[in-house]
Structures are given as structure tokens and as C-alpha cells.
Model the fold of this input.
Amino acid sequence: MSTFHIAVFVALIGTFLGTKIQCAPLIEELNPAPLTDFYKLFNNPDAHLALAKAPTTIDFIEEHGYPAERHYVTTEDGYIISLFRIPYSHNLKNQDVKRPIVFLQHGLFASSDIWPSLGPNDGLPFLLSDAGYDVWLGNTRGNRFSRNHTSLSTKHPNFWRFSWHEIGYFDIAAAIDYTLSTENGLGQDGIHYVGHSQGTTVMLVLMSSRPEYNRKIKTSHLLAPVAFMDNMDDFMVNTLSPYLGYNNVYSTLFCSQEFLPHNDFVLALFYNVCQPDSVVSSFCSGTEDTQKEEGRTNATAESLFSGVSPAGVSTDQIVHYMQEHQSTHFRQFDFGTKKNLKLYGSEVPPDYPTELITSKMHLWYSDNDEMSAVEDVLRLAATLPNKEMHHMEDKLWDHMDFINNWKVRQYINDPIIAFINEYETK
Ligand SMILES: *[C@@H]1O[C@H](CO)[C@@H](O)[C@H](O)[C@H]1NC(C)=O
Ligand SMILES: *[C@@H]1O[C@H](CO)[C@@H](O)[C@H](O)[C@H]1NC(C)=O
Done:
């Protein structure tokens, strides 16, 4: 999750530039005025050029000849999220036969763009499409494709009052129901689910808090599962979570706001901060070093994707993860004793009852994952009644390798498709 480091770093720089971290909305600071000043400050005429017209997931899909659709889904609490879809394969011309549904959910700071960025030879959505599936790509509330609500404006702080709890409980539930309600979905028993990082957390939230959803799941594939976090060893999280992982003045100031909105200001910041001649460029490259030096990933795909990252999150998603890191629990958001009592009827938030997750969970994990420690994955697995473990043999396999390692097709994508095929043919 190197984007995470850059993101936090940019936020810190942002503080110096006047985007104060405070609970009040950041709207004023992000308006065009400081933005213009910022460009002047860095005196970099290329910045605007590089930011011209960000592609969407539709572009990433259609570029390779596959049909692409965008669907808008309204959640029970009024958020309007976007799902992208490769409805059928133009290679198979299978639009008139029933296609089993597979749903893919991205991680923190990402969007549906991350899945097709690897291209048709390796990218999971393309491989699934050519294997005959109806492929859906989710987007969390607040990210670049899901910034709308039936009554709230993104400029209102109430829009940003959500963590990954609400993403699991509402967004993923609505998305699953929506895919099953389409013409192709009607009559299907359920879906196959693939999630990366936060995309695994939200699945565990939904399946444990609304266990009735388990019967809509055929198989789940959790790549780099994140639930318990106390053994993770990430510098930035270790540094920040003692401050943000509790209900205190720091977390209160940081809470419920848009963190790194997907806009020109932040993208320019990224762009400039990570220029080769920038004084802090070692920070940007530093975080990617292990991957790049060993040539472990498709750099073309990475740069395609970083052009549209970070995709936008609420600070509460980060605070909630920091709370997990400090509390050693996988549990709901800690609002402080008073509000917890009112909301949950207990001083501390309730644990997610993961033992209620009866649908089949495939856990894909590795030794070198800085966000998802083996001990934490095993602790989660011990609570799951119906699981299959897939430990990566490559000792260097890390958090992002599950998405863009050169060998991701061989070690992750093809095996997942084989499990899904096996389910469908049995
Ligand atoms: C690397 O990613 C690019 C961009 O999506 C893709 O076109 C290319 O085929 C990928 N390379 C390999 C060898 O898979
Ligand atoms: C937001 O959703 C409403 C429907 O509730 C729609 O009318 C409006 O066009 C949408 N706004 C954007 C920016 O997509």
C-alpha cells in the first residue's frame, strides 16, 4: 500500500500549504485560489498537462476491445455508487447465454481502475470475461466514481461520515443485490467475490453483520486479507496509530472529512513531489523500492494506475484501521464511551462476529505483506467456519503484488478462475 505512504506524506505537505487538518470541511482550502498559487510556487508548467482528462474504468476496458458499462446504484443510506461492468466477452460472443457473476472490489485509496490497468493478458476482469463470466467492478462511496448522494453534497461533512463499516454494510450489499437484479442476474443463486485489502475487510464486515448475505455468495477470494491488524509492521501506521487509533483530540480533528480528494490540486502535489529532481523524490521511489529494483511488477500498469490515484476516501476509513491496530480487535468504529453506549449499548464497540460467515472464504496471504501479517490472517482464519488457505510461496510477495506482480496471473488470477470454474461446473 505504498500509495498510502505517499498519501499521508502529501497530506502533511498539504498542512504546510494551508490545507489544515481539522474537522471542519476543507472546501475553502481546496478551491481554485490556493491551487493557482501552488502551481506558481512549484513553477511547473507540465503539471497541468499531465493532469489533462483522467481516463475512467470504461476507457481502460474499451481500449482493449471489451464492452464496458457504467451503472449507478443507490444504497439504503442514499449514497450513489458506480459499478463498472464487462457484461460479456466480445471474443466469446456470449451475450445471449447466462453468465455467472463475479464481483471485484478494490482496496483503500484505489478504485475500479486498478483491475483493468494490467491489460488483457494478465488483468483479472479480462481473464474472467474470456472465461465466460459477467464481470462487475465495485467502487466505494466517496471515491472518484462514487461522489453523489440522494440528499447530501460532497461539500457537506456529513457526506464523509463513514468508514469501511458502512462500505461493507451498505455499498457491497447494494452492489451484490444490484448485479443479481439485472436481466442476466435474475435466477442466479449468488455471485463470486474477489477483494483486495480493504476489499476484503468490507466483505468480512458484510458477511458477519448481515449473515443473510452469505447465501448470495458462491465463493469469495480475499487477497491480502485485512481484519485484525495488531501484528502489521508498517512504518506509517506504527507512527500514526498511537495518535489516531483512539478517540482523542487528534482523531477528532482528523475525523469525517475527505482525505486526498481526487482533484487537480492533490494530483499536482503528487506529480511535483515525485518528480525526479524534487527534494523529496526519494520518498516516492523509496516506498516502491523493493518492487521496482527486483522488477517484480508491470511498471506500465502501475503508471497508468497512479495517473488516476488516489481515488478519494474518508479520513474515518483510516482512523478505523488505526483503531484496529491499537485495539487488537476487529470491531466497529469507536466513537468514544458516550456515543458508543448510545449506538452500541456498550462502552466499547462490538466485535464483528466473523464466526457467522458461513460462505466459502479463500484467503490468499503472504509473508512479506506489510499491511496483512501472517499471524493476523491466521487469527482471522481460526474464526471462519468455511475457509481455504492459500499461502504464497514467494517470500517477497507483498501487499500490492496481489494486484500487479508479473506472475499475478500464474499465481493468483488463473487459480481463482479455476476455483470459480470448479464451482460452476460441479
Ligand atoms: C503491462 O501493462 C500494460 C498496461 O496495461 C499492458 O498493456 C501490458 O500488456 C502489460 N505487460 C505484460 C507483459 O503483461
Ligand atoms: C446525482 O444523482 C442524482 C440522482 O439522485 C442525479 O440527478 C444527478 O445528476 C447526479 N449528479 C451527478 C454529478 O452525477
The first helix runs from residue 2 to 16. The CA atoms of residues 214 and 359 lie 5 Å apart. The domain at 3-425 is CATH 3.40.50.1820 (Rossmann fold).
